[in-house]
Amino acid sequence: MDREFWLKRWREKQIGFHQNGVHADLQRHAGQWIRSPGHQILVPLCGKSHDLSWLVRRGHHVVGVELSELAVEAFHEEHKIEASVTEEAPYTVWRSVSLTVLQGDFFDLDPATHGIFDRAWDRASLVALPANLRPTYVQKLKHMLSPNAKILLNAFAYDQSKIEGPPFSVPEDEVRALFNDCRVTILNEVEEAPSPRMAEVGVPTILTTTYLIEMPPPS
Ligand SMILES: C[S@@+](CC[C@H](N)C(=O)[O-])C[C@H]1O[C@@H](n2cnc3c(N)ncnc32)[C@H](O)[C@@H]1O
Predict the structure, then answer these.
(1) Distance between CA 69 and CA 195 in Å, rounded?
(2) What residue ranges line ligand 1, CB within 6 angstroms?
(3) Are 66 and 72 in contact (CB under 8 A)?
(4) CA-CA 20 to 30 A from 95: which of 32, 177, 189, 203?
(5) How far apart are CA 32 and CA 73, in angstroms?
(6) What does the buried/exposed string (b/e) look like for 13-41 if buried means 16 or more CB atoms within 10 Å of the residue's CB?
(7) Topology annotation, domain 3-214
(8) Cα(47) to centroid of ligand 1, in Å?
């Protein structure tokens, strides 16, 4: 999954992962992840997700990170958000009230420059990455979070032998291994019908799991 793969998906409008509304699992479980307004929320690999503006409307400070300029432009246009756009290498930074979108590579995040977060929402981000990149992704994500921070993670598991990702299958044992220093709780698990592409190659079901992942307290 190199950068060009995703930039091409956005250029060719192959964005079946995009949801036309706020993600149901975010709405369903937000109460267990966030109890009051004013959190610093990181949304890695955010695409043009409606979840960004939903979190802002609930009174949080939100930072999304997305590689594709087309996605970031579309998000601001579709939500009628006027942003100031500045070049702050390695990112193009889109700032509006309570929302910053860093257009560039998630792996370039630096807590000294971009701050520390106490919440993160990962929907189709971990599962967007191939196995060899996932440990580096999780390491970077943890590096951007404060002690006691909470991640809400939505991940898929299915028979990976039938078809290549993305989305990749990231089953519970892998999630627990990646976050072995954290407390991992399953909030919800549901067997769903696979996408037509998966059904075609014989994937019978896809297991969607929502996890609450709590970073350890300060040492
Ligand atoms: C499967 S999509 C999920 C988007 C979003 N989370 C959602 O729920 O709609 C993965 C997104 O990650 C972006 N992406 C992939 N690699 C990235 C990287 N290294 N840094 C920032 N964004 C990246 C892609 O352009 C794509 O928009």
Answers:
(1) 27
(2) 6, 17-18, 45-47, 49, 65-68, 71, 105-107, 123-125, 128, 166
(3) yes
(4) 32
(5) 32
(6) eeeebeeeebbebbeebbeebbeeeebbb
(7) Rossmann fold (3.40.50)
(8) 5
